[in-house]
Amino acid sequence: MATLQSQISPASDTFRANAERMRALVADISEKAASIERGGSDEARERHVGRGKLLPRERLAQLLDIGSPFLEIGQFAAWSMYGEDIP
């Protein structure tokens, strides 16, 4: 199998700047994903649970077999679309 040769130099300033920018973007996305996984503000979660309801991930945990894989699709659907946090 032929090997593709790269012209990228990991020691270059451009590479390092791009790598740092990518790390910052990944950290930002990870932080936003964690916020989404929490399921809204503490007040909204308490209100939901106070009504005797399960949070979405709690419902999923009861539906899925323990240890079975789960791929969440659309985690960022409508993210920041309305200009405020949606409970």
Number of helices: 3
Q: Structural class per helix/strand content? A: mainly alpha
Low-confidence stretches: none
Mean pLDDT: 90
How much strand content do the residues show? under 5%
Oligomer: single chain
What Rg, in angstroms, do the CA atoms define?
20 Å
What is the H-and-E element order? Answer: HHH
Report on the structure:
- There is one protein chain.
- The protein has about 90 residues and is mostly helical.
- The protein has a domain of about 45 residues.
- About 50% of the residues lie in helices and about 0% in strands.
- The longest helix has 26 residues.
Brief overview:
The chain contains 3 helices and no strands. With 87 residues, it is an all-alpha fold.
Task: Map the helices and strands.
Elements: H1 13-38, H2 42-50, H3 56-63
Brief descriptors of the model:
87 residues; mainly alpha; 3 helices
